[in-house]
Amino acid sequence: MTSAIRSFGEVHFGQAELGDVRRTRRLVRTADLMCRRPGGSLPQKLRSPRDLRAFYRLVDCEQVTHQAILASHREATYRVISEMDSTVLVLHDATEMDFTTHRSLKGLGQIGNGHRCGYIVHNSLAVDPQTRQVLGLCNQVLHRRARVRSDETLAQKRQRASRESLLWVKGTAPLPANKQLVDVCDQGADTFEFLEHEAHSGRVFVIRAAYDRAILIGHGDAATAQRSHLRTYAAQLPEQGRWVLSVTSKVEVQSPKKKGQKAVVKRTAREAEMAVAYAPVQILPPSTRNGQHGREPLRMWVIRVWEVQPPEGQERLEWFLLTNEPTNTFDDAYRVVGWYECRWIVEEYHKGMKTGCRIESPQFTTEERLQPTIALLSIITLTLFAMRDASRRPDAKTRPATDIISEDYVAVLSVWRHGKVRMDWSIHEFYYALARLGGHQNRRSDHPPGWQTIWEGWKELQAMVCGADAAKLIPRCGKT
């Protein structure tokens, strides 16, 4: 006898400890309702006034906190990881959430250019590197940027617990010491304090280097090892192999040189020929401490990845990666580079939080209500990735779209695509119609739709559903 399939809410929140089993049941029901309609504002996610009022009462409870909601989901994520016998990436990155218009929220920190307020949200996202499937959140930190005195000394900054550089340490602190897990971080994590933390974490790490640090060459005796600098040394290493990387088009906004000036770099889509070189090094601590760390050098490997011949007018692709994964062959280096290439998934996750689930839209007047809502909507965002993953599975062309998405969405999108309601649509048909709405041409020669296209389609669809709701055009139960 097979057990019943558990809903998303039951899997991720069924064990939430909220002080009362009725609160847990309400959280499960709310999560399941939001999964069906992840887009729009809270009233659009929870169409029944009764369910909406019940959610408001739920987040009013003292026991319903950001960490209480996150803890249950985190345990569910760890259960999935424990059942896997392969490497799992934990992608770490931060994004800003803007709540400037919430005048009653006095405790929020500065974001952007300092004239807006909100949270810096640091996420740790578990991903299967083989399938690139998102498994769940391992951690989330809500950080308030502190107002710092202009005369703060380096010693005072080092002692300040609100330093943003500590977000990387706080984000990884709850993770288990398990070599199955690989922490993947961008250049913001390149502090000696965090490198030392990771070197003693019991996990593998890949961090993109931001600085031309002082190093010792090789893993030999530090007293006799030759000194150099990281980037200078890595740039001189002999090439060890090549491969072709499909580069998607992108517009990168870089730091402007003048206040108010926008610097934009356009990257064209191309097949880039990439080369790699690697070597063991020891990272020396900075002469002046910028954080809380020791004075011993850290043994790791540097991997340089670069584009051999970039097109004229295009900036060369080049990364310098630091890792504690032994890198002695081309295959070793290629595997580590592949891990780092998955880092873009966490950026797409942030787009899903803001564009897909509209996580900045709740109009709460207290942080006690806003913070657990951020945790819940951050987890609901995973359902958008589940839709993508479901569209790639063998049963995508036979599994009904209504298994994972609201009938309203299927009805509106099918009317747009075919001029009539098609509640028999498969997940594959829904996903590619959504991509078509976002500008994908669905030609056989086209690549699968990217997340930017999906988000464009999702925004359009959400507006269409809201319009249909207002005009009462959606047939009851999806039937004409």
What's this, in brief?
The protein has 16 helices and 14 strands. The protein has 480 residues and is α+β, with helices and mostly antiparallel strands. Among the domains are: 79-243 and 274-353, Alpha-Beta Complex (Transposase Inhibitor Protein From Tn5, Chain A, domain 1), CATH 3.90.350.10; 392-478, Transferase Inhibitor Protein From Tn5, Chain A, domain2 (Orthogonal Bundle).
What does this structure look like?
With 480 residues, the chain is of the alpha+beta class. Among the domains are: 79-243 and 274-353, Transposase Inhibitor Protein From Tn5, Chain A, domain 1 (Alpha-Beta Complex), CATH 3.90.350; 392-478, Transferase Inhibitor Protein From Tn5, Chain A, domain2 (Orthogonal Bundle), CATH 1.10.740.10. Helices cover 36% and strands 21% of the residues. It has 16 helices and 14 strands. The strands form two sheets. Strands 1, 2, 3, 4, 5, 6, 7, 8, 9, 12, 13 and 14 form a twelve-stranded mixed beta sheet that branches. It has a two-stranded antiparallel sheet with strand order 10-11. A hairpin with an 8-residue loop joins strand 10 (250-254) and strand 11 (263-267). Residues 257-262 have low confidence and may be disordered.
